[in-house]
Amino acid sequence: MTYFIDRRPNAKHKSAVNRQRFLERYRKHIKRSVEEAVNRRSITDMERGEKVSIPTKDISEPVFQHGPGGAREIVSPGNKEFLAGDKIQRPPGQGGGSGAGEGSASNQGEGTDEFAFTLSREEFLEFVFDGLELPHLQRKPLKSLQEIKMVRAGLARDGVPARISITRSMREAYARRIAMRAPIKRALREAQQALETEERKDPVLRNPARITELKAEIERLEKRIEAVPFIDTYDLRYHQLAAQPQPSSQAVMFCVMDVSGSMTQNHKDIAKRFFLLLYLFLEKHYEKVELVFVRHHTAAREVSEEEFFYSRETGGTIVSSALTLVKKIIDKRYPPEQWNLYVAQASDGDNWDDDSNVCRDLLIKQLMPQLQYYAYVEITPHDHQSLWQEYETVAARFPEQFAMRQIIDAGDIYPVFRELFKRRLSQQH
């Protein structure tokens, strides 16, 4: 008998599976609480967890109980008062109630609190970005720096226990046992037949020494058969892993923000919060997404993440300068056949005369044929200006790739973000 003992230590957080099952079961209630928390807190405070409450009535478990009518017998331990056949009166109505309503206080000062627990940062962000994705993310052809995936590449006699092939090892052991026992079993059958033939002879012709010799030989052969091991190190086979190049789904997101003088400080704060939410979303769900930050007024510059969010530079407004810079960066560093290209632009819609037409032509003729998706948010409570009107022409030409929404105040950031990046049923990979 062979015993296989798993000596690996138990993993930490052994209740993690139960916690995930709980989060999945009450996803609707938790998601509603998370959305309320997002509307309540600042976008800059999105990275911490959240305390979530679920009404007690919503976590009650179903129970089975006897219906009215019918005859049933009950054995109650410790009964010293009743005998078989006695009838038991029901308890008084005022004493059989369930007390105060759940989640509220009764006139006796008693009640039941809502069930509350705390979501971690990862769990909170998971619910915040649930159902969102980068639209039209595609696998791109292999490039010089290939994405490598380890795949199985046959079997080998050497390896680590974690990659042992149980089925193949047992098959090898079975074949070895058959091969090693076959000649011994053949010799055993011949010895048993010879012994049977010798014992059937007439006692006068029987050779006692030969019988003793055959019995000893049979015993020796049976021991040899039992000595063949069930499994041997020679039988073990291990899965081999080989590096296989994979099509890359790498992407780059261009964050384009208007910092001109027409953008008030409130407009800039809303734009920064929108891009911060986008940054958290990409950091949470995509490991291989690069970010390019572009600020523009009359001129556009590629800046660092810190400068993008905290620089106070300002000026006039020429939106086409930012689009031209994005095009130059794509041509220089991000070939469309190797990268998924995304652009998110935030502006108040103000632009110099005749430049909106230039932006429209740049998008239709040069940028949109190369991009997977373009998201434009206009931060203004007023009527739309020429830039929005020209962008409507672009949206009509590229309805699946170009989306535009208006943000009036900070409360619109999260709903607009979810609308722009919601999961599409026709998503192609």
TrEMBL record:
SUPFAM superfamilies: vWA-like (SSF53300). It holds the Pfam family DUF444. It comes from the Bacteria. Transmembrane segments: none annotated. Residues 83-111 are annotated as: Disordered. InterPro entries: UPF0229 (IPR006698), vWFA_dom_sf (IPR036465). Residues 93-102 have a biased composition (Gly residues). PANTHER family: UPF0229 PROTEIN YEAH. Belongs to the UPF0229 family. NCBIfam families: PRK05325.1-2, PRK05325.1-3. This is UPF0229 protein SAMN04487958_11044. It comes from Vreelandella subterranea.
